[in-house]
Amino acid sequence: MHTTQLNKFDDLSVGDSFKTPGITISESQILGFAGLTGDFMPHHVDEKFATDLGFRGRLAHGLLVLSLVDGLKNRSLVQFDVIAALNWESWRFVGPVFVGDRIEAELTVSAKRLTTSGKRGIVTLDIKVKNQHGEIVQEGSNQLMLAV
């Protein structure tokens, strides 16, 4: 696995692991995502509503966190020569993410195979998203089609 260059299928091995940079969740990200998606559920945009539910504050949208993780993956020191993202599998929202939380992801190559033509490769990344306390808040896997 190479850093600071595009990794092709042949550069990766099952078991390779790396961390993304981190990002702190802001109020503007949550409100912007609500505006973009139309998801104005009150536990995302209303502090009192969220605290009345027993949370310590407003929750980030699960899909916002997933989107940020994809961006972190794409800005990491370890880059992939991606032809296409194929899917996100078995994605779980394990714990809440709040304004001010800092998240990062740990990615591990868990599987790889050539396509039928042998001209491209499919890599599966197992991903664990952790907050600043090291708690897993989301997890699942992402399949990518890579250049060979």
Describe the structure.
It comes from Bordetella genomosp. 4. Residues 14-127 form the MaoC-like domain. This is Acyl dehydratase. This protein is α+β, with helices and mostly antiparallel strands and 148 residues long. It has one domain (9-147): Roll (Thiol Ester Dehydrase, Chain A). 23% of the residues lie in helices and 39% in strands. It contains 4 helices and 8 strands; from the N terminus they run E-E-E-H-H-H-H-E-E-E-E-E. The protein has helices spanning 27-37, 42-45, 47-52, 62-74; strands at 6-7, 17-19, 23-24, 79-80, 82-93, 102-114, 120-130, 136-147. Strands 2, 3, 5, 6, 7 and 8 form a 6-stranded antiparallel beta sheet that branches. The longest helix is centred in the middle third of the chain and has 13 residues, at 62-74. It is elongated. The chain starts with 5 loop residues before the first strand and ends with a strand. The model has no long low-confidence stretch (mean pLDDT 96).
